[in-house]
Design a protein that fits this description.
The protein is an alpha/beta fold. The chain has two domains: about 20-115, NusB-like (N-utilizing Substance Protein B Homolog, Chain A), CATH 1.10.940.10; about 210-410, 3-Layer(aba) Sandwich (Rossmann fold). The protein has 13 helices and twelve strands. It has helices spanning about 20-35, 35-45, 55-70, 75-90, 95-110, 110-115, 125-135, 135-150, 160-170, 230-235, 250-260, 310-325, 350-355, and strands at about 155, 170, 175-180, 200, 220-225, 240-245, 265-270, 280-285, 330-340, 360-365, 385, 400-410. The strands form two sheets. Strands 5, 6, 7, 8, 9, 10, 11 and 12 form an eight-stranded mixed sheet that branches. Strands 2-3-1-4 form a four-stranded antiparallel sheet, sandwiched between helices. Helix 11 links the parallel strand 6 (about 240-245) and strand 7 (about 265-270). The longest helix is centred in the C-terminal third of the chain and has 20 residues, at about 310-325. It is globular, with a radius of gyration of 23 Å. The two termini are about 45 Å apart. It comes from Devosia epidermidihirudinis. Keywords: Methyltransferase, RNA-binding, S-adenosyl-L-methionine, Transferase. Belongs to the class I-like SAM-binding methyltransferase superfamily. RsmB/NOP family. InterPro entries: MeTrfase_RsmB-F_NOP2_cat, MeTrfase_RsmB-F_NOP2_dom, NusB-like_sf, NusB_RsmB_TIM44, RCMT, SAM-dependent_MTases_sf. GO terms for molecular function: RNA binding; RNA methyltransferase activity.
Length: about 400
């Protein structure tokens, strides 16, 4: 995670004891969400900076500081004792046991001051200025709150059933999306999972597939489809779906998900940038690879491991995929382009590029009436822009940052 990998919550396979597992997940997620503030604290406490070739020292230090400063209910003594013991057990870090103890005791003495650090530190400078200009101060304040709160669990229902919603302890959000604010068991243990009555999908992620507006039975291509949430939506809408992804393992997961839901589609493992169908499609949905900055409620580490160069690389890839998606589209067909990114370069700017470089493609603006309960996400140009500070359907918990544009081929 310090190198940029996404954190997946520890499971019983990692830690058998449920209480230990819950504690470990709480420590890790707190350290990830508070990374900007922990960076400030570490800079203040380590005069010479982070030691090189120090094994697990940094990871242990961050977890312990998170406990000392931001989780005082867990107790300071355990943070100090366990941190020193953990460092001693690592041959590459044991020479830093004394430094670990000294730094943590200094943090304990200054914990009241450090616990009051500004939330401005939670958003890295790499994106802070861009987001401030694009979304405004009020939204950015909402970003910080959403980052610390994390994401509730959103589900897309296969069929609307009030009894199922009640048994899940969920509340309707918009359309066929429901939200579970708190849960005490894994997703697989929730009512209706084994029967394939719903699938996990963030409220924002469920928007693009609803906007195709084609007749039932239309042939639709889902590009970069895995793990299959949008594929399932397209099947539910009555389309003949081809789901394509270049990753064979992710396609296997998509297949498993569709099997659980008792849905079927044509599955193709191929490069979305070069795929050439035998006949064009009436609809193409491209959920393009992106910086994924809009997912920071679930993956807080992502914004600390993305650079301007990373975004530029994704922009180039997205344009190649858009070009091929256009080639796969029949005359009069509909193209949906979407990304789970907060970067205008991956959203609004890509619309301008597509309209200038793909002759015959025109914008089909989304109407506010098409997003009942989330009208504020529809821009004056008919684009869809969600962000973590929004309250879909008036519900707390925010939503992913998503950009959606809808086109037609003349």
């Amino acid at each position: 995670m310090l190198a940029g990998e996404n954190f997946s919550a520890l499971t019983a396979a990692d830690l058998a004891d449920g209480r230990d597992r819950a504690l470990a997940n709480r420590l890790i997620t707190t350290a990830l969400r508070r990374q900007g503030q922990l960076n400030f604290i570490i800079h203040a406490l380590l005069d010479k900076g982070m030691p090189g070739k120090s094994g697990t020292f940094e990871a242990v230090l961050r977890l312990s500081l998170a406990q000392l400063v931001f989780l005082p209910d867990l107790g300071a003594h355990s943070a100090l004792f366990l941190a020193v013991e953990a460092v001693k057990r690592d041959p590459k870090a044991r020479h830093l046991a004394g430094l670990t103890n000294a730094v943590l005791r200094s943090a304990q003495a200054n914990s009241a001051k450090f616990s009051m650090l500004s939330d401005d530190l939670l958003i890295p400078e790499t994106f802070g200025d861009t987001w401030l200009e694009a979304y405004g101060e009020e939204a950015i304040a909402g970003f910080s709150g959403a980052l610390l709160a994390g994401a509730p669990l959103d589900l897309t229902l296969k069929d609307t059933d009030s009894d199922l919603i009640d048994s899940l302890g969920a509340e309707p959000v918009i359309a066929d999306t429901v939200r579970i604010e708190q849960r005490d068991r894994p997703v697989e243990a929730l009512p209706g999972y084994s029967e394939g009555r719903w699938w996990v999908q963030d409220t924002a992620s469920a928007i693009p597939a609803r906007l195709l507006g084609l007749a039932a039975g239309s042939r639709v291509l889902d590009l970069c489809a895995a793990p299959g949430g949008k594929t399932a939506q397209l099947i539910k809408a009555g389309y003949q779906v081809t789901a394509l992804d270049s990753d064979a393992r992710r396609m296997e997961r998509l297949k498993e998900n569709l099997t659980r839901l008792d849905y079927s589609a044509e599955l193709v493992t191929a490069d979305a940038g070069t795929y050439a169908p035998t006949s064009p499609y009436k609809g193409v949905l491209l959920d393009a690879p992106c910086s994924a900055t809009g997912t920071f409620r679930r993956h807080p580490e992502v914004v600390w491991h993305r650079s301007v160069a990373d975004v530029a690389g994704r922009v180039r890839l997205q344009r190649a995929l858009l070009s091929n998606a256009f080639r796969c589209l029949d005359a009069g067909g509909v193209l949906i382009y979407c990304v789970c990114s907060l970067e205008p370069a991956e959203g609004e700017s890509q619309v301008e590029w597509a309209l200038q470089n793909l002759p015959g493609l025109e914008l089909w603006p989304v109407e506010k009436t098409e997003l009942a309960g989330l009208e504020s996400a529809v821009t004056d140009k008919g684009l869809v822009r969600t962000h973590p500070g929004m309250a879909p359907g008036g519900r707390d918990g925010g939503m992913d940052g998503f950009f959606v544009a809808r086109f037609r081929r003349r």
